[in-house]
Amino acid sequence: MGLFSRLRDRLVKTRQGLVEKISELTRRTREIDEDFFEELEAILLGADVGVEATEELIDQLRAAVKEKKLHEPEQVQEILKEKMAILLGSEEQGLNIDQEPPNVVMVVGVNGVGKTTTIGKLAYQLKQQGRKVLLAAGDTFRAAAIDQLEVWAQRVGVEVIKHQEGADPAAVVYDALQAARARKTDVLIVDTAGRLHTKSNLMEELKKVRRIIEREHPGAPHEVLLVLDATTGQNALSQVKLFKEAVGVTGIVLTKLDGTAKGGVIIAISSQFNLPVKLIGIGEKLEDLRPFDPGEFVEALFAEEEKVGQ
Ligand SMILES: Nc1nc2c(ncn2[C@@H]2O[C@H](COP(=O)(O)OP(=O)(O)O)[C@@H](O)[C@H]2O)c(=O)[nH]1
Ligand SMILES: [Mg+2]
C-alpha cells in the first residue's frame, strides 16, 4: 500500500467525523444561508477544530461566498478545504538535526501521549536515513519507562544511556551527551517523564534537563518536540501553553491520529500557536510516524475512497 493510501486509511475516523458530515451537509443544502453556516460550525466544533479556528474558517467562508457570489454548497466545501490547508501551514517543516553533531532532540509531553513510542519510531527513521542515533532514558520515574525505551532501542538497533530508576534525569542527559560526543552520534534523542500530578515539579525537572543540555552543548537542544495525543482533543491545547512557557517548544508531534474522530484538533493547534506540527503518529508500528505535510494531510482527509487506493 502506498504512503498516501495508508495515511488516508488511518484518518478514516476523522474523515467520518468531519469531511463526510460536511459532504452530507452540502448534499442536502439547497441554499447557502445562515442555517448552513450554523450547521457547518457545529460539525467543525464537533471534530475538535476548536472555537477560534472554527470562527476563522466560517468568517473566511462567508467572505469568499460573498466575494465570489457562490450558490453551490459543493463550492463551499472546496474553499473550506483550501482554507484548512492554509491554517495547517504552508509546507512541511523538517527537523533541525543537520547541525554540528550531536544534534539534540528533547521529547516532552504528559504521560501516555506517546513520547517513548515516538522516539522509537523516530530513531528507526533516522537510522534508515543513515544517521547514528543514541537515546537517553530521561524518564527515570519508573523502571518500566526505562525498560520500554530499551525495548524500542533493541528493536531499532540503537543504544540507550540510562541510570537507575529514581536517578536525576539531568545526570542521565549529561552522561548521554558525553557518550554522544565520544561516539560521534548524529542525533541524541532524550526521553523525559510526563507525570503532572506528583509532588516533584515536572516543569522544574525539564528546565533543569534543558539547562544541562544548553550548558554542555551550546546551540542545543536543536529541537524540543512536544508530543500531544490527538484523542484528547481540546485538552491538547492547554498542554501546548504549559510546555511552551516552561521549556520552549520548537515543534509538535501529534500522535494517535488513527482511531480518533478528534483529528480536527490539528487545525486548532496549527492556527492557535506559532508552532509547526512536525510529525504525526498514525499507528503503533515503526513506520507509523510521518513528517507532517499540510497539503498531503488535507488531500488524504478529503480523499474519496474510489478516487484513490489503486
Ligand atoms: N494508535 C496509536 N497508538 C499510539 C501512537 N503513538 C503511541 N501510541 C500508544 O500510546 C501508548 C502510550 O505510549 P508511550 O510511548 O508509552 O507514551 P509516553 O508515556 O508519552 O511515553 C502506547 O500504548 C503506544 O503504543 C499512535 O500514533 N497511534
Ligand atoms: Mg514514556
Structure, explained:
- With 310 residues, the protein is an alpha/beta fold.
- It folds into 2 domains: 3-91, SRP54, nucleotide-binding domain (Four Helix Bundle (Hemerythrin (Met), subunit A)); 103-293, P-loop containing nucleotide triphosphate hydrolases (Rossmann fold, 3-Layer(aba) Sandwich), CATH 3.40.50.300.
- The chain is 51% helix and 13% strand.
- The chain is built from 12 helices and 8 strands.
- The chain has helices at residues 3-10, 12-28, 34-46, 51-68, 73-87, 115-128, 143-156, 169-182, 202-216, 235-247, 265-272, 294-302, and strands at 103-108, 133-138, 159-161, 187-192, 223-229, 251-255, 277-281, 289-291.
- The protein has an 8-stranded mixed beta sheet with strand order 3-2-4-1-5-6-7-8, sandwiched between helices.
- Helix 2 (12-28) packs antiparallel against helix 5 (73-87) and helix 8 (169-182) runs parallel beside helix 9 (202-216).
- The chain is elongated.
- The model has no long low-confidence stretch (mean pLDDT 93).
- The site of magnesium ion has 4 residues, from helix 6.
- Magnesium ion (MG) is lined by residues 115-116, 139, 145.
**Count of DSSP helices?**
12
How many domain regions? 2
Assign an overall shape: elongated
CATH topology of the largest domain: Rossmann fold
Largest sheet: 8 strands, mixed
Query: Given the helix and strand composition, which structural class is it?
Result: alpha/beta
Binding site for GTP: 109-116, 191-195, 255-258
Protein name: Signal recognition particle receptor FtsY
GO biological process, one term: SRP-dependent cotranslational protein targeting to membrane
InterPro entries: AAA+_ATPase (IPR003593), P-loop_NTPase (IPR027417), Signal_recog_particl_SRP54_hlx (IPR013822), SR_rcpt_FtsY (IPR004390), SRP/SRP_N (IPR036225), SRP54_GTPase_dom (IPR000897), SRP54_N_sf (IPR042101)
